[in-house]
Write a structure and sequence with these properties.
Helices cover about 45% and strands about 20% of the residues. By secondary structure, it is α/β, with parallel strands linked by helices.
């Protein structure tokens, strides 16, 4: 399975502008029930990633006001990206290597395509293992 197979059916690519307030970003994450989003500049170019951890670690834990801070002040800019044609195994390797929970999917021709999370990968792995277990069970205990 490829990254594009995983994200291809998604209706929306979650992103926020770098100039948005942290308060707006927190509401955006909450309303869409996601834990991270890509951050785009005024031209629509991917410039960062913002997660709930960034908000809690860099704003709430520091007792700063989210209404006065901009996403650009707290977003992570050391971007770890993956291509849509990469394998899910490649995703796992990158996440483990960089100790992260989200990968930014970037297509050289189409730009930012979304995020792949560790949760996305766990769902695929769990589903695959269940299918294998079901096949083994039907082989060992056939229904008559």
């Amino acid at each position: 399975m490829k990254v594009l197979d995983l994200i291809g059916a998604r209706a929306e690519v979650f992103s926020i502008r770098a100039g948005a307030t942290v308060h707006e970003a927190a509401q955006y994450l909450r309303d869409r029930q996601v834990r991270a989003v890509g951050v785009l500049d005024e031209n629509g170019t991917l410039v960062g990633v913002l997660s709930q951890s960034d908000i809690s670690d860099k704003v709430a834990a520091e007792n700063k006001c989210p209404a006065w801070m901009r996403v650009s002040e707290i977003m992570s800019t050391n971007l770890v990206t993956i291509a849509p044609e990469a394998s899910l195994e490649d995703c796992l390797r990158l996440m483990e290597k960089h100790r992260i929970f989200h990968l930014l999917v970037v297509d050289p021709n189409a730009g930012f395509r979304g995020l792949v999370s560790a949760k996305d990968l766990l769902k695929v792995i769990a589903s695959d293992h269940k299918e294998r277990a079901d096949m083994l069970e039907s082989y060992m205990f056939p229904q008559h």
